[in-house]
Amino acid sequence: MTSSPDLASLYQLLAKEQRPILPSGERRAILGCGYVGEAVAKAWRQEGHELWGTTTRHERLANLAEIVDTPVVFDSTDPRSSLKFAGSLDGILASFAPSKASQVDVNQYRETFLGGLQMLAEALQQRPRQTPLQLVHLSSCGVYGNRHGALTDETVRVDSLHPVNEVLAMAEDMVQSLRSESVNVCILRLGGIYGPGRDIPAMLLSAAGSVVQRNGQNVPCWIHRDDIVRGVSFAFEHNLNDTYNLVNDTQYTGQELTDRLCEQAGLPLAKWLTTDTTDRVLNARVSNAKLKQLGFTLTQPSMVG
């Protein structure tokens, strides 16, 4: 026997109303409850924090209401949108991301990251100056560009030649400008994200015996979604106030990675191209040593094995 729609809605409402906010819980917001932001919200909800979460789509509000206390529609391109609620929070995760599209739209990146962060900055100007705030901004290791496979840590100058990387670097600068005696700013530069619903190893295995239309000599970097969630929580727990690479230990070229996956699965090797087919390239052996030295550990250290 199944519950009627009315009873099901009542059960959801009661579950929400009865959820305790722990005495140690904080008032936190996830700005951008997409693939990563939603996972962070679920983890924080279990910890007893009072949560705000934003989405750009009205139709997602009902689902978002099941994992945050206050769902908000926020679109950085809409002047009617507001982040005024951010002024009363203890912690904020800025997890902005452009909508998925087959082609990268630089204007969309600019509107999403720079527009959203500008509105956040305006909201934070209204908050009490002495109230502590932890702000974590999710950026991308793509900002390193083509380092020709060299070992790359956070001291390396980012690439601002490609317009997308320029926008991401400007976004990092905007977030850094919010740092003060009462505001900690942590920037996490992420590798390519994989995890539930984004099975990159399986996708690479599907290329077994065929040609991959990308340069297999480039070295990408990767991070599992669950380790992003843990990395964000680690930043909050330790009041991090710097920039860190959040990537796993895999430092293979695209060709080397698929070779190892195919060998493990007993499949014929895939063949990658040896020239770039795109103007935006990440080719760097990105180091995660700085974050590990603070005690952070990975649950998914490699895509192989």
Characterise this structure.
- This protein is of the alpha/beta class and 305 residues long.
- Helix content is 32%, strand content 21%.
- The protein has 9 helices and 13 strands.
- The strands form 4 sheets. A 7-stranded parallel beta sheet has the order 3-2-1-4-5-7-11, with helices on both faces.
- Helix 2 packs across helix 7 (225-237) and helix 4 (106-124) runs parallel beside helix 5 (163-176).
- It is globular and about 60 Å long.
- Mean pLDDT is 90; it is low at 1-5.
Distance between the termini: 44 Å
Question: What's the number of helices?
Answer: 9
Strand order of the largest sheet: 3-2-1-4-5-7-11
Number of strands: 13
User: What is the C-alpha radius of gyration, as a whole number of Å?
Assistant: 20 Å
Helicity range of the residues? 25-40%
Order of helices and strands: HEHEHEEHEEHEEHEEHEHEEH
Structural class: alpha/beta
Give a quick summary of the entry.
With 305 residues, this protein is of the alpha/beta class. The chain has helices at 5-18, 35-46, 61-64, 106-124, 163-176, 200-205, 225-237, 254-265, 289-292; strands at residues 27-31, 50-55, 70-73, 91-94, 133-140, 146-152, 183-190, 192-194, 211-215, 222-224, 243-246, 271-273, 283-286.
Tags for this model:
disordered N terminus; single chain; two-stranded parallel ribbon; 32% helix; 7-stranded parallel sheet; 305 residues; alpha/beta
List the helices and strands and how they pair.
Elements: H1 5-18, E1 27-31, H2 35-46, E2 50-55, H3 61-64, E3 70-73, E4 91-94, H4 106-124, E5 133-140, E6 146-152, H5 163-176, E7 183-190, E8 192-194, H6 200-205, E9 211-215, E10 222-224, H7 225-237, E11 243-246, H8 254-265, E12 271-273, E13 283-286, H9 289-292
Helix pairs in contact: 2-7, 4-5
